[in-house]
Amino acid sequence: MAHASGSKKALLDYVPKTGHAKVLATTRSKEIAMQIVDSNPKFAKRVKELKHADAALLMLGDDAEDPSKR
Question: Which residues pair with residue 8 across a beta bridge?
Fold first, then answer.
């Protein structure tokens, strides 16, 4: 990703940095994952494909049980 000054920035540079927040980014592409974490593999985790119900629970928490919130 190019910056206005011409230098390259990782997607992670655009995520606010605080001591109390966590960000979950998902992708199917290892190349994109490495861009997001600025090529630091300790921040990229491979996970198996989730079933729909498990994915809904992960993203929606308790609201996953409410079909109107999906």
Answer: 2
CB count in 10 Å sphere of residue 36: 21
Domain ranges of the chain: 11-69
Q: With left for phi above 0 and alpha for psi between -120 and 50, is residue 2 left, alpha or beta?
A: beta
Strand partners, 2: 8
44-67 confidence digits (pLDDT tens)? 888 888 898 888 888 888 777 777
Helix (H, G, I), strand (E, B) or coil at 45: coil
Q: How many residues does the chain have?
A: 70
pTM over 0.90: no
- Tokens of residue 61, six digits: 């928490």
